[in-house]
Amino acid sequence: MAVPDPPDAPERPAPLRHRHLLDLSTYEATELRHLLDTAQEFRTVLDRPIRQVPTLQGTSVASLFFEPSTRTKLSFSLAAGRLSAETVSLSKSGSSVTKGETLKDTARNVEAMKVDVVVLRHSSPGAPHFLARCTDSVIVNAGDGAHAHPTQALLDVLTMREHVDTFKDLNVSIIGDITHSRVARSNVQALTTLGAQVTLCGPATMLPVGMEDAMDVRTTTRLEAALDGCDIAMALRIQMERQDEGLFPSTREYHHQFGITTDHLRRHPDLLIMHPGPVNRGIELSDAVVDHERAIILSQVTNGVALRMAVLYLLAPQREEA
After folding, report:
1. What value does the mean pLDDT take over residues 269-295?
2. Are residues 308 and 201 part of one domain?
């Protein structure tokens, strides 16, 4: 599939087997590669003087964000706009949820306005699955609790693919608050499906018991062990808002034990650094690492728009021409 210059619309590629994007647990490698290939084509659109194609004219996309977001919310909005879709955005503070309206009723009212695609971020794990059962709109999960964040994982994998020839035997280490991370879970699903080897690293209090067997990964509580033989290291933010009690002595101690510094980059000269954001400088990554040439964090942000364009493009209902 190639995305031509405007005003011509691209030829619709083969549809995905799935109607929604709720998580990646049932997506096969062929579907993941299809999403990535489509996103790579849309990535070229973002480098043009006119960064818009008319592909989804007449399609409406509603973003329902009941948790704070910067990158995900903005990139979905930009992605829909780049595809010429009609967009509407709703946050918890500006919605009738504050008046007691249920998520189901909110979604059904949005659907009654003839919305084709609903992009949902919610603090409750499983909320997108619930909506998929009670509405007819296409549902895209933009993060649900500590469960899943499929588009973040896909944009991460898309960014990795720009730097590696194959995922087979690629070694990726994910470091930080694994217990509370929907990003870690979705990345493990995508990476292992594509053939990569994944190591999860963090304090013992932040490593869920049984993940090695459940998700076919390696775990360690030693940062140097996670970086030994690692091709790409992804640091995660400590999610204080999801913790009921302190799981480590202090942020200073955490940085000493698990923060990636330029010393680590010197010892591992081919290591690439990623982070899903927002970055807490001086905790999971030192200032110098965030700004280092081997940190590809901003590429993740740019690729997020292209990947979400691909998701909306492939999942939006196809319309018959008049």
Report:
1. 96
2. no
